């Protein structure tokens, strides 16, 4: 039995993962943490058909809770600020983490990786845990390798509540393309285009366009436009619901549980799915 806790339990992703966890005979939910609905029954709150006496805990009590409860893995779908604080606490206390939060700072990622290795606590970070999207990442690299001289643009669309821009998934796509081209993303990325004269630098090795749309309740759409002379290819992924992400998180939990301590590092969902 894999004993887990959920951070961001009230959020849309936290609730979806919670329902799947309660339905899964291989996983036992030990704790649910958030900053709202403290003290409420979590099963009832998320509308699960499985009733369990788990109350929503105040995130301020995270460290005392993990010190007095036997846990294997924590799942975090919160905000960058919350993740960067709470996941350091988790790893310091030997709790493996599955992080789906986007917008994480380079400073945190370096500190987190050092702790993962030092404490021998394997963990997973992925901006998008959907199976289809991770196949999309693989296809992006393959297409880029054949279309190095073409212009490449990335367009992503999300709901108007999303905090970070561009999305973590779009940035992952951009890094994959840049790495395939052998260039530094920081040197070629063009985030949107200002009004007025703004001629594009031709070829993806000189410029990769990255554009963000925020509107309504769009779950998530990502398009890579490969444009050559007289023709173009569009590679597109559309998330119809967040269920794809939640199912990926469950796969990540089970994969991470079986990783040996001596293989402590930060894994990606692509490794979970065998796509590397």
Largest sheet: 7 strands, parallel
Low-confidence parts, pLDDT < 50 over ≥5 residues?
Answer: none
Number of domains: 2
Shape: elongated
What is the rounded distance between the termini?
28 Å
Helix content range: 25-40%
Number of helices, counting only DSSP H or I runs of 4 residues or more: 10
Order of helices and strands: EHEHEHEHEHEHEHHEEEEHEH
CATH class of the largest domain: Alpha Beta
Strand content: 15-25%
Report the average pLDDT across residues: 94
- The CATH topology label of the largest domain is Rossmann fold
Give the strand line-up of the largest sheet: 3-2-1-4-5-6-12
User: From the structure provided, what is the oligomeric state, counting identical versus distinct chains?
Assistant: single chain
For CATH, the homologous superfamily of the largest domain is named as NAD(P)-binding Rossmann-like Domain
CATH architecture classification of the largest domain: 3-Layer(aba) Sandwich
Structural class category: alpha/beta
Number of strands: 12
Gyration radius, rounded: 20 Å
Task: Give your account of this protein's structure.
The chain is an alpha/beta fold and 276 residues long. The protein has ten helices and twelve strands. The protein has helices at residues 12-23, 42-45, 62-67, 80-92, 106-119, 131-146, 168-181, 185-188, 243-257, 269-272; strands spanning 2-7, 27-34, 56-58, 73-76, 96-99, 123-125, 151-158, 189-191, 208-214, 221-227, 232-238, 266-267. A seven-stranded parallel beta sheet has the order 3-2-1-4-5-6-12, sandwiched between helices. It has a five-stranded mixed beta sheet with strand order 8-9-7-10-11. Helix 4 (80-92) links the parallel strand 4 (73-76) and strand 5 (96-99). Helix 1 crosses helix 9 (243-257), helix 4 (80-92) runs parallel beside helix 5 (106-119) and helix 6 runs parallel beside helix 7 (168-181). The mean pLDDT is 94.
């Amino acid at each position: 039995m894999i004993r887990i806790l959920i951070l961001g339990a009230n959020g849309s992703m936290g609730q979806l993962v919670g329902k799947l966890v309660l339905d899964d005979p291989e996983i036992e939910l030990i704790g649910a943490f958030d900053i709202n609905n403290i003290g409420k029954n979590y099963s009832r709150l998320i509308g699960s058909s499985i009733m369990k006496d788990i109350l929503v805990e105040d995130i301020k009590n995270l460290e005392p809770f993990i010190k007095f409860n036997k846990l294997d893995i924590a799942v975090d779908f919160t905000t960058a600020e919350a993740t960067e604080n709470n996941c350091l606490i988790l790893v310091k206390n030997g709790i493996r983490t599955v992080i789906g939060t986007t917008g994480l700072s380079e400073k945190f990622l370096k500190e987190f990786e050092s702790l993962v290795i030092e404490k021998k606590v394997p963990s997973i970070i992925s901006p998008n845990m959907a199976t289809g999207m991770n196949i999309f990442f693989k296809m992006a690299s393959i297409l880029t390798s054949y279309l190095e001289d073409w212009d490449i643009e990335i367009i992503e669309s999300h709901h108007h509540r999303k905090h970070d821009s561009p999305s973590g998934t779009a940035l992952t796509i951009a890094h994959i393309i840049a790495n395939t081209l052998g260039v530094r993303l920081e040197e070629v990325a063009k985030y949107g285009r200002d009004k007025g004269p703004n001629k594009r630098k031709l070829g993806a090795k000189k410029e990769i366009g990255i554009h963000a749309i925020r509107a309504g309740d769009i779950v998530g759409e990502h398009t890579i436009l490969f444009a050559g002379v007289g023709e173009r290819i569009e590679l597109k992924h559309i998330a119809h619901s967040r269920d794809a992400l939640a199912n990926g998180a469950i796969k990540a939990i089970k994969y991470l549980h079986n990783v040996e301590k001596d293989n402590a590092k930060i894994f990606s969902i692509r490794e979970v799915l065998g796509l590397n």
